[in-house]
Structure to design on (107 residues):
């Protein structure tokens, strides 16, 4: 009988690759470091506001990719449909934001 971790194909046992605890710990620590960098940039009052905003946006994008790739497992096979729907949602949201900004600042 095949277990959750093993399957039989043509009478040969194959082990499925599983993500180890080490990878999750590394990603978790990296997420915490990104959060601390963003917090330090805001807490330091003498930093240029434009630099702070750009840094926060970069940190946010990195956090999103880490969260989606490792915690939501979107990097794994079989997750193409959720990725397509999320990209569609990002496109629609981005279009709405650009149009709202254009509408507000239109002379």
């Amino acid at each position: 009988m095949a277990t959750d971790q093993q399957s039989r194909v043509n009478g040969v046992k194959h082990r499925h690759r599983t993500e180890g605890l080490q990878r999750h710990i590394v990603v978790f620590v990296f997420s915490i470091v990104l959060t601390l960098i963003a917090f330090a940039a805001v807490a330091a009052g003498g930093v240029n506001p434009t630099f702070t905003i750009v840094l926060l946006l970069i940190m946010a994008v990195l956090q999103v990719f880490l969260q989606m790739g490792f915690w939501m497992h979107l990097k794994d096979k079989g997750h193409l449909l959720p990725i397509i729907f999320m990209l569609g949602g990002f496109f629609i949201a981005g279009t709405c934001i650009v149009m709202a900004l254009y509408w507000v600042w239109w002379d």
